């Protein structure tokens, strides 16, 4: 990258991840963005917010994945939205580009957040990936774990199967590689463990929303979480555990109160429901090894 501007003179290609929502959401979406960058031979750059600084070690020795301060769009990329002029979904919907367009802009914005629309979700189609492969810079804003849908893209399928023959362990391996706590954070963690947990006969990890009412005395598993807890999904994935998930309490007595997660993989907040090959909506589960969050709220 030439300082302060986008450089199209080399064959290097990039994905710029933009921070969005809380820490749990960020960890899930960074992991998704990393695998996408890996499978498409792109360099991943993180537009890290100040509240993430100092939490994690840099994952790549002798280099940094932090977006430089003098990057051309550094001051404005947080404001990019679905209707941004260079948003991929918007450009498709407005017929500014199509699959035969040869002269493409040097960068495009990808809206992959929980409220993305049909045209944004075409990102997960092979034909769209062929088009995006010609764009040097992709600026991605996401707050969801969209990684499972990468397995639906047929041009990625063979390589992903080699990398992850067990699809239920993808986040476990990638997350433990990417998110090592910094020395300061690790000292706080170990001190807390020594003070409160080291002598415990049984340890239960709990991450809940404020609206959950429950009695935990009967639980003796390692992790209890609520259906919409993104940080709970991070914990189960990093720990390699299938959690017990507490269902939302209705006015009447809930029976059962909880269910076992179908895998250690984080749930999918906003999965696509479009079959790219058939070009029709589908409402069945497209990613069978991942639970859709809507099924357990």
UniProtKB/TrEMBL annotation:
Keyword Zinc-finger: no
Lineage top rank: taxon: Eukaryota
Any single Pfam family the record assigns to this protein: XG_FTase
First-tier enzyme category under EC: transferase
Keywords (A to Z) from UniProt: Cell wall biogenesis/degradation, Glycoprotein, Glycosyltransferase, Golgi apparatus, Membrane, Transferase, Transmembrane, Transmembrane helix
Enzyme Commission number: 2.4.1.-
Compartments, as annotated in UniProt: Golgi apparatus, Golgi stack membrane
Residues annotated as transmembrane: 14-39
Membrane topology note: Single-pass type II membrane protein
Function: May be involved in cell wall biosynthesis.
Similarity comment: family membership: Belongs to the glycosyltransferase 37 family.
Protein name: Fucosyltransferase
Taxonomic placement: Eukaryota, Viridiplantae, Streptophyta, Embryophyta, Tracheophyta
């Amino acid at each position: 990258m030439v300082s302060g501007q986008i450089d199209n003179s080399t064959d290097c290609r990039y994905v710029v991840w933009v921070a969005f929502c809380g820490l749990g959401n960020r960890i899930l979406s960074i992991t998704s963005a990393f695998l996408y960058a890996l499978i498409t031979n792109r360099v991943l750059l993180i537009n890290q917010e100040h509240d993430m600084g100092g939490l994690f070690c840099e994952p790549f020795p002798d280099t940094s994945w932090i977006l430089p301060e003098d990057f051309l769009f550094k001051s404005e990329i947080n404001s990019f939205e679905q209707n941004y002029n260079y948003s991929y979904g918007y450009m498709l919907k407005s017929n500014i580009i199509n699959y035969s367009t040869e002269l493409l802009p040097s960068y495009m914005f990808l809206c992959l957040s929980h409220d993305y629309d049909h045209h944004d979700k075409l990102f997960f189609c092979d034909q769209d990936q062929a088009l995006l492969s010609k764009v040097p810079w992709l600026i991605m804003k996401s707050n969801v774990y969209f990684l499972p849908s990468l397995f639906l893209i047929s041009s990625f399928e063979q390589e992903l199967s080699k990398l992850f023959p067990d699809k239920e362990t993808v986040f476990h391996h990638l997350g433990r590689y990417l998110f090592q706590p910094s020395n300061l954070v690790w000292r706080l963690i170990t001190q807390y463990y020594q003070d409160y947990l080291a002598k415990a006969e049984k340890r239960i990890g709990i991450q809940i929303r404020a609206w959950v009412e429950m009695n935990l005395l009967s639980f003796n598993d390692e992790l209890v979480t609520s259906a919409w807890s993104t940080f709970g999904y991070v914990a189960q994935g990093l720990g390699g555990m299938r959690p017990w998930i507490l269902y939302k309490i209705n006015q009447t007595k809930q029976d059962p109160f909880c269910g076992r997660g179908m895998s250690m993989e984080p749930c999918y907040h906003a999965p696509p429901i479009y079959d790219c090959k058939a070009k029709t909506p589908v409402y069945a589960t497209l990613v069978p090894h991942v639970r859709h969050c809507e099924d357990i709220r």
